[in-house]
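Progress report, Aim 2. The chain analyzed during this reporting quarter is listed below.
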Amino acid sequence: MKLQQAKQQEEMAVSFLQRSAGQWNSQRRYYTLKEDSSTEQMVSHLKISFLEMGDAKLEELAQAHGLAQKLKAGSSVFWESKQEDGKIISRGTTILGVLGNILYRDRGFATPKPVFAYYRCAEPENMALRTEYNGSVFEEEFKLIGQIYRTRQTIISRAGEELMIGQYLERRLE
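Predicted structure tokens for the chain:
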């Protein structure tokens, strides 16, 4: 039964990535959770492309992680983030791929090195990720809401203490 559940999780993850493909406007709010707590708001433009098994980008990602197996599917994600005044503060691309219960990435949030996240899909519209590196933990939850909206929440912790919460409302542009 566990093998069947793992296969079902992998299929839901691939479907989630397929349905997330497109262009998105992402309204973001970051809350710093310290005594001097602050809130930062920005808007990001996302362009997400679905990658089929065998895509050259997925082959490179598998090689970067030292995998013998091919990744089942993945995504190429371009982002450009701007502050409220329109100043660009971040721009880049990341590649991710699914194999088993792991989502492999070519880079992390705070590192240019390859990282991976354990994921679970409670239902086809939801994906939760847990990534750990350099003493930090990144817990993310994604939810597709119909065809037009997607929500995300990220909690960043270090040494068991929550440091930041990111909340996102994303609207499909195409």
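The chain is about 15% helix and 55% strand. The domain at 2-172 is CATH 2.40.128.20 (Lipocalin). These observations will guide the mutagenesis work planned for the next reporting period.
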